[in-house]
Amino acid sequence: MGNSATGEAQRFTVESFATGERRTVTARHWWDALADQPGPCFTVVREPGGQHAAISLENDAFTVPGEVVSATPEAAAAAIRQRYISIRAAMA
Questions:
Q1: What pLDDT is stored for residue 6 in this prediction?
Q2: How far apart, in whole angstroms, are the C-alpha atoms of residue 61 and residue 42?
Q3: What is the 3-state secondary structure of 18-45?
Q4: In terms of domain of life, where is this protein from (predicted)?
């Protein structure tokens, strides 16, 4: 999911679920981009089929509708955080 086949460095936008703090990280893979972040964070990656997914190191991954990805970064992040909260609540 979202791997670079060549392992070349890519830029990932990583956002904290807790604070909404957003930063850009350069890494070879999404898991490297998330590994050293404080607290639970997510990034959005394009899957091989062209769909997008929000992923976190907690092994949570869920499809992100195209209209969310095409929204402003703030609106997209808010929608993803809300979806994450809903998923976590359903698992509790």
A1: 56
A2: 9
A3: CCCCEEEEEECCHHHHHHCCCCCEEEEE
A4: Bacteria
Mean pLDDT of 12-18: 86
| Residue range 32-52, pLDDT digits in tens | 999 888 888 888 887 777 777
Name the residue type at position 32.
D
Alpha-carbon span 92 to 90, nearest angstrom: 6
Structural domain contains residue 2:
no
Give the rounded distance of the alpha carbon of 86 from its chain centre: 16
Total structural domains within the chain? 1
Say if pTM beats, i.e. exceeds, 0.90: no
Q: Are 34 and 57 in contact (CB under 8 A)?
A: yes
Return the amino acid letter for 18.
A
pLDDT the model gives residue 47 = 74
Host domain of residue 28: 10-91
